[in-house]
Amino acid sequence: MTDSPTARAQELFLAALELPDTEREPWLRRECATDPPLFRNVMSLLGHAEPTFDRLEQNLDDVIADLPRAEDNQPSSPQHEPDAPSTVSRDDFLSKLAEVGVLTSDELESISHSTSVDDPGTDPRTLASKLVTEGKLTDYQASALLKGEPDLLIDKYLILDLIDVGGMGMVFKAIHRTMNRVVAVKMISPQMLGSASQVKRFQREVRVAATLEHPNIVRAYDADKSRGVHFLVMEYVRGDNLNKLVRDSGPLSLSLAVDYIRQAAVGLQHAHERGIVHRDIKPGNLLVSSQGTIKVLDLGLAHIDDSLRHKDAEPEDESGRTQVSQAELTTAGAILGTASFMAPEQSLDAHLVDFRSDVYSLGCTLYFLLTGDTPYSGSTVFKVFVEHREGEIPSLQEERPDVPDSVESVFRKMVAKKPDHRFQSMSELIVALEDCRIARPESQSPASLPDAAAPAETDAGKVATSGQSVRSPVTKQRMPLIFGAIFAVVLIALAAIYLPEWKSSHTYAPSGVTTEPGITSSTSEALADADTIATNHNHFVQAHGSAADRITAGNWDWELDKNLGPIVNSPQMEFGADMSADGLTLVVSSSRGVDSTDRDLFMLTRQSANAEWSEPVGLPPEINTKAGETSPQLSDDGLTLSFMRGAKRFTARRESKNQPWSPPVEGADEAGLPPNIVSLTRDRLTAFSMRKKVLSETESRYVLQTWRRSSQKEPFGPSTISSFDASGVPMKGATLSKDGRMFVSATQINPGETPIRTALFWATRDDWTAPWSAPVRMNLPEMSGIGTPRLLSNATSLLFVAQHADGGHGRADIWMASLVKKGDAEGDTPRDRAK
Question: Which among 259, 280, 549, 636 is annotated as catalytic?
Answer without folding.
Answer: 280
